[in-house]
Amino acid sequence: MQLSKRETQLIELFLKHGMTLTGQELAEFANVSTKTIYRTIKKINEESENGDIIVSEVGKGFRLDYEKYLKESLQKRSDNQAQGPMERRNAILLTLLFRSPRRILIHDLFSPYYVSDTVISNDLNRIAEFLKGYHLKLIKKDQRIAIEGKEKDIRKVVNGLLSANTLMDADFTTQKHKISAYDINFITSLLEFIENQLKSGIVYPYNMNIFSHIYILIKRVREGEIRSDLSFEQLDEDEQKLIERYHELYKLSEMVISKMNDYLNLVLPKSEAFYLFQYLISSRIENTPIKLVEKSQEALEMTEFFSKKMSEKMGIRIDQQPNQQDLYSHVEPMLYRLKNEIIVKNDLLSDIKLEYSETFNQVKQVSQEVQEVFHVNEISEDEIGFLTLYFVKYKEMINSKKRVLIMCSSGVGTSELLKVKVRKAFPELEIVDVLSARQYKKKADQYQNIDLVLTTVHLNTEMQVPSILVNSVFTKQDEQRVKQMLGEIG
Questions:
Q1: Closest by alpha carbon to 17, among 25, 6, 27?
Q2: 400 exposed, middle or buried (CB, 10 Å; 0-12, 13-18, 19+)?
């Protein structure tokens, strides 16, 4: 089902404002007439392959059948859409890239599409212009064309095109591109080998990037464009230093290439180990015994910049140390991807932009500042989408913190000591205030949303929230009792 902009916006109204809305409510939200709303709903339902997506309920209005909507969305993502000009050019471009630098007859490239000479000329001009941005040239001679340039640039463009067009799904099932089942099994076994060596999983979408990279290499070998007797560009000084810093990851890359040599029955150039190595260090790898290197100062500064600016925009403190460490583990590989123009595809992007539009736009604004301050390449919306999820998570963590009051007889010395001890034992708690029992009685109405009270004195007044009598030095026994109470209050 292909929806127009208006039809898509109408469905988004249900997702934003509630699954059941009246025609009048929809009209006001969309700033159109109710007649337009009725016509749009009718058209959406007519185009649905799973029955009516929007149903009418007497006395209530219209309801979005969420399950049917999800089915339509999944079908839309997996269906092979009709070939348009962009899809045609991308398919031709991929064929040329896979066979580069071999020349191919123009007629053979375009004959399946039944297009005129004018369209062919226009397509080739657009492809040539696109390739300039990657330091590649489209060469035409005797009705044949070829792409010429460095191997690393060719791989970069192929990976970008496959990422944008979705080579595989998250379960490594083929989509639009025909891949041998043997190749799928082999590449999957290589990914398992990498994860076993790392003793850590490589999460989506980084596993897809590595899968695509290995697939591209196999495809280039099968096309005869990569052979052991071909010379490849030498690694520069910065690349050699990178190998020294991540020596164990590079050794793992060499082991994987050795397995590929056996599978393909040839000896791949040494540079292939470096190409794979690039994808490993641009992936998020956690909890691995492999020694990764000291933290990057630039990535640390970028992490702090994101945290500080997003704290200001969101109006909450999200720049605490645990959050900084978590965010850093994403920013460091992202920084390497930006510098080396490695693309990651975010299949959840449209959902993220819809569900967390405010946070997404805030991250987008900060990302533009990051580009200027740190002089990095453009941060794509796919990357911004991944970053958005981190800040949404931090916001939810803050909002879900248990709110605690600490009180004692004076509200000064002992309760301040208790505050320090509690904060150290339970950093996830929000300590709202430190006060005396007498002070609490005077302004109890100011503390309506408290989850727990920790007190060093017996409270004579009836408390509406759970309270625990604790020692002012907060012993291990007190810590266990608080932990148990927190578990009981959820």
A1: 25
A2: exposed
Q: What is the pLDDT of residue 301?
A: 95
Q: Mean pLDDT throughout 335-340?
A: 90
Q: Do 174 and 270 fall into the same domain? A: yes
Tell me which residue range forms the domain holding 357.
297-399
Q: Is 153 exposed, middle or buried (0-12, 13-18, 19+ CB in 10 A)?
A: middle
pLDDT at 135 over 80: yes
Q: Which position has the higher pLDDT, 487 or 98?
A: 98
User: Do 406 and 430 form a contact (C-beta atoms < 8 A)?
Assistant: no
- pTM, whole model, 2 decimals? 0.63
Cα dihedral 447, 451, 455, 459, rounded to 10, equals: 70
Residue 228 has pLDDT above 70, yes or no: no
pLDDT at 467 over 90: no
* pLDDT surpassing 60 at residue 174: no
Same domain? For 379 and 464 the reply is no
How many beta carbons lie within 10 A of that of residue 302, not counting itself? 22
Strand order in the sheet with 54-57: 20-21, 61-64, 54-57
Q: d(Cα 190, Cα 36) in Å, to the nearest integer?
A: 54
Q: What are the DSSP calls for 192-236, one per residue? A: HHHHHHHTS---TTHHHHHHHHHHHHHHHHHTT---TTS--PPP-
- CA 337 from centroid of its chain's CA atoms: 13
Residues 220 and 268 placed together within one structural domain of the fold: yes
Could you read off the pLDDT of 39-50 as tens digits, one per residue? 999 988 888 887
Q: Which of 78, 96, 123 is the last residue of a domain?
A: 78
Tell me if 156 is assigned to some domain: no
Q: Is 340 helix (H, G, I), strand (E, B) or coil?
A: helix
Residue type at 59? G
Domain endpoint, select from 248, 280, 312: 280
Residue 18 backbone zone (phi > 0: left; psi -120 to 50: alpha; other: beta): left
CB 393 within 8 A of CB 405: no
Q: Which of 33-42, 176-185, 189-198, 204-213 bottoms out in mean pLDDT, i.e. has the lowest?
A: 176-185
Q: Are residues 374 and 318 in the same domain?
A: yes
d(CA 309, CA 328): 15
Q: What pLDDT is attached to residue 172? A: 41
Look at the chain and report how many structural domains it folds into.
Answer: 5
pLDDT at site 435? 81
